[in-house]
Structure formats: C-alpha cells, structure tokens
Amino acid sequence: MSRTKLAAPILFAALAALGAPHGADAAAKPPATNLLFSFVTNQAGFDTGIAIANTTADPFGTTPQDGTCTLTFFGASAPAPFVTPPILAGTVYVNVASSIAPGFQGYVITECDFPLAHGFAFVSDLGAQNVAMGSLALVIPPRARKGGERLDD
Questions:
Q1: Where are the beta strands (DSSP E) in the chain?
Q2: What is the distance between the alpha carbons of residues 148 and 153, in angstroms, rounded to a whole number?
Q3: 4-21 burial by CB neighbour count: b if 16+ within 10 A, else e?
Q4: Are the C-beta atoms of 71 and 104 separated by less than 8 Å?
Q5: Which range is least confidently modeled, 16-20, 24-28, 52-56, 81-85?
Q6: What's this model's pTM, rounded to 2 decimal places?
Q7: How far apart are CA 82 and CA 69, in angstroms?
C-alpha cells in the first residue's frame, strides 16, 4: 500500500479530531479564526489598542478572503459584542478600547469569519508617555469551542 493511501485516512481522522471541516463543508466555508486578547482595559488612565490582521493575502497561494470579526467582551463594564467593518485580505483593522468599549476591563474573545486572523494588543497610559506593553492575541484552537470543552481543559 502506498504512503498516500495510508496517509489520507490518518489525515482525515486528525482533522476530524481537531474539529476542522473536510469534504463538502471545507469547500463551502473556510475555517474561521478565534482569538483571545487576554487583557484589555480602558480604566484608571489606561487604554488598549487592538489590531487584527487578515493575513489571507500571502505569497503561499492562500485564497484571499475578506470578512468581519465579532469582539465579545468579558469583565467589568462589558459592552455588547462589537462587529468590525469588513477587514480586507492583506489589511489590518485597528481600534482602541476607549472607542469600542469605554470603561471596560477584562478579556476579549474575537470570532473572525475568515482564516488566518492574527491579533496584537497594546496597553498604555493615555498618550503612551510613561508605561506601555504589548501582547499577541492567542489563536484559540477549533476544538476549544466544541463539545463543552473549555479553554482550561
């Protein structure tokens, strides 16, 4: 038996275990990306800048795909979920917590309806004059959203 014939069932089993679509589902809708911004604040003289990159434009043959992201806030003074305007392939959406979540402090889970989203957050005092720090958003694996599993499993 050839390596290809052996590898295909193993690959599909691995994709199924990760919750990745395959077959007709994969052709119908590419996988989305879920991001965790672990600390976002607009309290006590601090503000957070959020950047979400749509990296589906690349030199590797990826099909460019535009889409939006829904930011859901968890914590003190959490506002209703916020939907970004369309983020075109190869561009970066940027905003600050003071504009989309005034008075908020906590974490944000972002659900983008396109693959290969990546994020960055930058917390600083207002005007970034004294204190600042940045962090990459964590990409939440697809299986973290299925079957009642939690992020801490």
A1: 33-41, 46-54, 69-76, 82-83, 92-96, 105-112, 117-125, 132-136, 138-140
A2: 10
A3: eeeeeeeeeeeeeeeeee
A4: no
A5: 16-20
A6: 0.76
A7: 8
Bridge partners of residue 49, in order along the sequence: 96, 122
Tokens of 47: 């503000």
How far is 123 from 143, CA to CA, in rounded Å? 29
What lies within 8 Å, CB to CB, of 140 at 6+ separation is 34, 35, 36, 109, 151
38 pLDDT exceeds 80?
A: yes
Tell me the sheet residues that pair with 51.
94, 120
pLDDT tens per residue, range 81-103: 999 999 999 999 999 999 999 99
Q: How far apart are CA 105 and CA 133, in angstroms?
A: 16
Q: How confident is the model at residue 130 (pLDDT cuts 50, 70, 90)?
A: confident
Where does the pLDDT of residue 134 fall: very low under 50, low under 70, confident under 90, or very high at 90 and above?
Answer: very high
Delineate the domains of the chain, giving CATH numbers in brackets.
1-27 (no CATH), 31-145 (2.60.290)
Torsion of CA 18, 20, 87, 102, to 10 degrees: -40
- The type of residue at 140 is I
